[in-house]
Design goal:
This protein is α+β, with helices and mostly antiparallel strands. The protein contains 26 helices and 16 strands. The longest helix is centred in the C-terminal third of the chain and has 40 residues.
Length: about 625
């Protein structure tokens, strides 16, 4: 059902936008704005802006924006009425009845939250006071868990009985169907009632970032299998989505600028007790893309600290790619063989663990070390090792090849040049003589010279004099070019520019890409057919300066145009709401329009004299 606009306005007026967004995003003051990393897309440079005084937020990276209700809609994947009701409940505002079907879903979720809350309180009370829980208290003492930690994480005890929790829920008015849906009880055969899922276990509740109990983990006190029993999929919990203690660690992440990811509940709890309040656990499941995306909402930097055994190292390797895809910078914390975060911090202390954090290696180094061990451990010759190592280096981002080629070569006791040159050995055809100018052209080379755009001319100029790459690296960026092939090859030249001195070096750099070899050959043919070939370095510099100025004008015009579009949308939104347009917004609009006209005029004058004009 539709929510009355007056109720919507009251919800928005009583919602602290900064406090709401601050639950999910680490915000920092910048001028009059609050700025942070966008929770809706992966980014390294903050482009998410919140304006609490005006009641709206905007991401200039992905383009999303709106008010507090829109933020909840985007973040929790809710429709407008449901998001409005979430905020209304926070603000203590009554909302008229909703659609019956939606109400049933919402009521079921809230009933499950209530059942979980009662269960957590019941388990916690037993652990603290019940005589049946003495073994559980002894276990907590052996694990070094203090009374303050037990209280902070609401740890509990499930007795070795079939109906202890079921009876408690029934006395609290929780229907058996809700307890079943929550995963707290199971149905007996032939409809003979229900029985408790968790028995004779230390209980560890998991909360969402907004504080509701969504699941439990139970650690066996005896020989019961499995050692850890976890809540399965329920209407409020999906395996692989939540992270244990994130509701607490997100605040620690804001201070530390990073999160620590461990495998187990008790690993996480031990770190918190040791003062590392930015630790989370993956809840006994393989690390998932959803968990990586959830981490990225609160921190860009992530320390991965899984167990030191083979399974833990394999899990680390799998988590790295997911974290990278989510836009996180991952560093790997190494522990001694046989140790996990829990045993290490209890036996060696928090300072020793901090030393391990300080010594954490970039994910690249961890992955390379794993592969280097495999390469070095094989019965292969030096040439084959060099080829395999070079393939490994080239699996990384291009701009990192030179750095990590040296690292891999040193680890394998090879020279970096051995790796770089090894790619030539595998395919002798790459060294075949080039066709003379009068020879028949293949499909890889143009049969006749074609008109070349200034983008192609830029590559030609750099190919003829690669020393210019360093001079123009920050002025002529590949991203500004329209041709994707040129963007790629130019990026490759920039990445390898430290090793490029002559045109022959350029040819060697691209020798393993036949399409690029053909492209450069085509450029050379076209250059020979043109009257304005760059004969001297001064001519190349003059041409590249004009290109740099043209691209700079385009960039500034695009930035001005984008800001103007955002401002005009804001004005339209204000007009639609019947709100007067503030004077400063009108003045800024006029400034942007004037700046755009001036920039466009300059750009037109530059393009009249551009490298392409009259070609």
């Amino acid at each position: 059902m539709r929510i009355d606009p007056s109720v919507t306005r009251e919800i928005l007026s009583r919602t602290d936008l900064a406090a709401l967004i601050g639950q999910y995003v680490s915000l920092h003051k910048r001028g009059r704005d609050l700025v942070g990393l966008c929770p809706f897309h992966a980014e390294k440079t903050p482009s998410f802006h919140a304006h609490p005084d005006q009641g709206y937020w905007k991401c200039f990276g992905c383009g999303k924006g709106g008010d507090a209700i829109r933020f909840v809609m985007e973040l929790e994947n809710l429709k407008f009425p449901d998001a409005a009701r979430v905020l209304a409940k926070r603000a203590g505002i009554e909302v008229e009845p909703e659609d019956p079907r939606a109400a049933r879903v919402r009521n079921e979720r809230e009933a499950i939250y209530e059942a979980n809350r009662i269960a957590a309180a019941f388990y916690h009370r037993l652990l603290l006071k019940d005589e049946r829980a003495q073994g559980a208290r002894d276990y907590c003492e052996r694990r070094g868990l203090s009374a303050a930690t037990i209280e902070a994480f609401q740890l509990g005890f499930a007795p070795n009985e079939w109906a202890a929790l079921g009876d408690e829920l029934r006395k609290a008015g929780i229907e058996a169907d809700i307890a079943l849906r929550a995963g707290l009880v199971k149905a007996r055969a032939e409809g003979r009632g229900v029985y408790d899922v968790f028995r004779h276990r230390v209980m560890i509740p998991t909360a969402s970032t907004t504080g509701e109990i969504v699941a439990f983990g139970g650690r066996a006190l005896g020989d019961e299998n499995p050692k850890y029993l976890n809540t399965g999929t329920t209407p409020v919990h999906t395996k692989g989505r939540f992270l244990y203690a994130l509701n607490v660690a997100r605040r620690g992440a804001s201070k530390a600028g990073a999160l620590i990811v461990v495998e187990g509940y008790l690993d996480c709890i031990a770190l918190h007790q040791g003062g590392f309040d930015n630790a989370v656990a993956s809840l006994g499941t393989s690390f998932t893309a959803e968990q990586a995306a959830e981490l990225r909402k609160y921190a860009e930097n992530v320390f991965v600290c899984f167990d030191a055994d083979a399974a833990g190292q394999a899990a680390t390797a799998k988590s790295i790619e997911l974290l990278r895809q989510a836009g996180c910078n991952a560093r790997i914390v190494s522990l001694p063989a046989g140790e996990d975060p829990d045993t290490f911090v209890r036996s060696k202390g928090a300072p020793a663990f901090q030393e391990r954090l300080d010594a954490a290696v970039p994910w690249v180094e961890f992955m390379l070390d794993r592969e280097i061990s495999r390469i070095a451990g094989g019965f292969t010759g030096a040439a084959e090792i060099a080829r395999r190592a070079e393939r490994l280096v080239r699996s990384l981002p291009m701009e990192e090849w030179d750095r990590w080629r040296v690292y891999v070569a040193n680890r394998l006791r090879l020279a970096p040049a051995d790796l770089q040159n090894s790619r030539f050995y595998a395919d002798a055809s790459r060294f075949a003589p080039r066709a003379p100018a009068g020879a028949k052209m293949t499909r890889h080379l143009a049969a006749a010279p074609k008109r070349v755009s200034f983008e192609r001319d830029v590559v030609a100029a750099f190919a003829e004099e690669p020393l210019l790459l360093e001079e123009y690296a920050g002025r002529i960026e590949p991203e500004a070019f329209s041709d994707p092939a040129i963007r790629e090859i130019l990026g490759h030249l920039y990445a390898g520019r430290s090793n490029l001195r002559t045109a022959a070096d350029v040819t060697a750099l691209v020798a393993d890409r036949t399409d690029w070899v053909s492209f450069l050959a085509e450029l050379q043919l076209n250059e020979r057919s043109k009257h304005r070939r760059f004969e001297e370095s001064a001519q190349r510099r003059e041409f590249l300066d004009r290109v740099a100025a043209l691209l700079d004008a385009r960039r500034r015009a695009a930035e001005t145009r984008n800001e103007l579009v955002v401002l005009e949308r804001e004005i339209e939104s204000l007009q639609a709401a019947g709100t007067p347009i503030p004077k400063e917004i009108r003045e800024r609009q006029n400034q942007l329009e004037d700046a755009l006209r001036e920039t466009e005029g300059k750009r037109e004058r530059k393009e009249v004299n551009s490298p392409d004009h009259g070609a």
